[in-house]
Amino acid sequence: MHEIQLQEADSLWDSIITHVKEEREKTPHTKRNRYSLTGEKSYHSEDNLVQLDTEWSKQLKLLCYKATEDFAKMEKKPLLSIDQVFINCWCMIMGRGAYSIQHSHPGAIYSGVFWLQVPTEMPKDQGQFVVVDPRQGARLSMYNPEGFDVAPTRSHGLVFESWLEHLVQPHFIDGERISISWNVAF
Ligand SMILES: [Fe+2]
């Protein structure tokens, strides 16, 4: 697993959030949840965010690829060039009480997440990104936490292998927690 902290992503994040909120308006409430995402106040966008014909979409594709490339290099794992891989990227908006059940990303090789917006004053034990310990036996030990918790902060991200199970805890204050995720397959 690889952690990333971006410096200058504000205008990219704004473009994504504007686009995704416009899409949400066009989507009936009953179709706003997909895959692992659950909750009345949540929205899972289409997974085409790096395939749109806009500057920000191209910029986002490069960002997802570069983050994945850093991870692959660090782990000495294979990765094809940006024109030879398939990247799917989507956004999740989680309002009060929304959460993501434990899951992995089948069909991909690498996956990642960036946090775009986190409600101010979200308690540290809420809205966490939890990586479940893949060593099943270790989950039973009282001296070993069940997983590895990452508190989401703006412009911070993670890249990991797609088989790694994870979940997102709900938060119970008002305000939207917004993230993007991507899969790389080749
Ligand atoms: Fe996920």
Outline type: globular
Helical residue percent band: 10-25%
Which H/E pattern describes the elements?
EHEEHEEEEEEEE
Number of strands: 11
Strand content: 25-35%
CATH class: Mainly Beta
CATH architecture: Sandwich
Number of domains: 1
The number of helical segments is 2
From the alpha-carbon coordinates, what is the Rg to the nearest angstrom?
16 Å
What's the end-to-end separation, in Å?
A: 19 Å
Write the layout of secondary structure elements.
Blueprint: E1 2-5, H1 10-26, E2 37-38, E3 42-44, H2 55-74, E4 86-94, E5 99-103, E6 110-117, E7 129-132, E8 147-150, E9 156-161, E10 166-168, E11 177-185
Antiparallel strand pairs: 1-9, 2-5, 3-4, 4-11, 5-10, 6-9, 6-11, 7-8, 7-10
Bound molecules: fe (ii) ion.
Can you offer a commentary on this structure?
This protein is α+β, with helices and mostly antiparallel strands. The protein has a single domain, classed as Jelly Rolls. The protein is built from two helices and eleven strands, in the order βαββαββββββββ. The chain has helices at residues 10-26, 55-74; strands at 2-5, 37-38, 42-44, 86-94, 99-103, 110-117, 129-132, 147-150, 156-161, 166-168, 177-185. Fe (ii) ion binds at residues 103, 105, 166, 181.
